[in-house]
């Protein structure tokens, strides 16, 4: 029988027989999660003028969808016009009754397609990407090329299964946890390094994740791993030696240069450079007139 070595610990913690939630558990992030589902307050969702209604925030998961929508619009897909409504998860807006009605899991992003006979709600970012790709016939190989389609979906679901180790694992313990725990950081650093190597090897012989075509697999993976390589999340690029992943770095920079990606990154963003914050998007012209630097300038006049 395998016997694991005992880990040294600076703090002894004896778990109680029954765990109990303390509402301030999580510090600055205490309002993001809770141990029960369902709404905590009444709050209806706004509905804009476009066929697609997005309720989100510019985290990597939110950016997946706004990048997809902006890429569709760049191709001239008029049915992809959308309103992007801000959901402030730090204030617990994801637990409002309207949002929970669309997504009982209370996580962003959530999408409602108002163009169908009755409104169609979709939650989970991977499901939204797949829904939009199938609805508009873009960025996902069709049934006439089953191998390419399966390859794309395989990498899409690779991201869905892998990113929690990067975000909830490495990102949390390296950047956000109130106490730095060597064991946790080492464990998740090792897994993230392995994932970066997986991507680097895949991109050694492929322009994009699935080959020569840009797909929803790229749009799903890039906001997490591209932002990591560019040191836009967790401030861990040097720590993880991301520069050593040459093929991944090449792919990251290529996608970062796409105009639709640049637009998608700032939708529902409420922090950082005011020029790169578009709290809500209701029209294509908002990128020119409604970023925070423009609004602040107007208020100061």
How does this model look, in words?
By secondary structure, the chain is mainly alpha-helical. It has a domain at 146-259: Glutathione S-transferase Yfyf (Class Pi), Chain A, domain 2. The chain is 44% helix and 6% strand. The protein has helices spanning 60-74, 97-102, 125-136, 146-176, 182-204, 216-229, 246-256, 259-266, 286-289, 292-300; strands spanning 52-56, 82-86, 110-113, 120-123. A four-stranded mixed sheet has the order 2-1-3-4, covered by helices on one side. Helix 1 packs parallel to helix 3, helix 5 packs across helix 7 and helix 6 (216-229) packs across helix 7. The longest helix is centred in the middle third of the chain and has 31 residues, at 146-176. The relative contact order is 0.12.
What would the keywords be for this entry?
301 residues, 6% strand, 10 helices, mainly alpha, globular, Glutathione S-transferase Yfyf (Class Pi), Chain A, domain 2, 4 strands, four-stranded mixed β-sheet, single chain
